[in-house]
């Protein structure tokens, strides 16, 4: 039993060590004190496997300290990139899951990570590129995209630093545009149902594509900024699979994305409402709002939008990550982009339904006239007023199109996001 546990855990440790960029760079730099960096990496892998298994109470901090000491002693390297902390957390988490019999969940999580070359093997070919120490200052200035590290021989080794696949910019942008253009009519119906003037007075099914231009232009940067912030924050927090990390990352991302989203929403929804005074271009709508109220005009409803988006993301993203992590264990099927999109659809639909009242309040504030009482009220006051006037149906106005829009949108959005991420990862690995 112990031998089986060790064999399984060693394969996991090996998988994670192959993803440890700092270790690979140390080997490629020739920084091992005896110039045998690859063999040392293999020995460290075995040592950490046994070290973690033998510890009765394994703590991530202790693992991190051990990894830091090994890198310092063996490679004369200090890891200031947070990699030992992240690696330590993974090693502790996966050993705990392994002991709890959650082998398949570990496989599912690792399969979701970008593929990497397995280089920690005795027959691996490591490319060492030596450069002479006496390089001129001018030459040094031309090598700004390289890292220089000392080796034990007194020479230096130059390693090209490859750019990472952008963490969310492109994938998020592509996904955002795909959703907003494909499902825009449903969004228009939802906006008109929530309008204070009512569905038919706001245009009914007439001009169903009004407001598409600002939505199309704004969706790419909004979604790109959101996912860039989401992925970056997850990484800064340790890239843990904890739902609390997903919640925190999603909350930060929503606040940042709203810097673009709110002006776009104002222009889009006022165009969608078919109010005569807004029968002008999106740019003119924002310009008039700025002239009348300054930045408060183009960011009207900013707080309400954040209060809608954060609860939405606090529900949607942890659910999406949870569904993905447990997909194969529950269904026995591999997690393909199609199933990633299905997880996104279910998570989005649930989040959309629960946050519909917040969306109703946000729409009322954005469509209100400059001096209307609506913009002077908070969310609770607005929803109480709607309930007194129209009952629970008013509070949940637009529920069906909102859930439909975000369910389908979740499938398209997360499907495109996963496909684009995989495409970029494959291209990056081929270069």
Automatic annotation (TrEMBL):
Q: Which InterPro entries match?
A: MCP, MCP_dom_sf, MCP_transmembrane, Pre-rRNA_process_TSR2
- What does the entry list under GO cellular component? mitochondrial inner membrane
The stretches annotated as Solcar repeats are 163-236, 241-326, 335-423
Q: Where in the cell is it found?
A: Mitochondrion inner membrane
Keyword annotations: Membrane, Mitochondrion, Mitochondrion inner membrane, Repeat, rRNA processing, Transmembrane, Transmembrane helix, Transport
Respond yes or no to whether keyword Mitochondrion is given for this record. Answer: yes
What function does this protein fulfil?
Answer: May be involved in 20S pre-rRNA processing.
Q: What is the name of this protein?
A: Pre-rRNA-processing protein TSR2 homolog
Per the UniProt record, the source organism is Culicoides sonorensis (Biting midge)
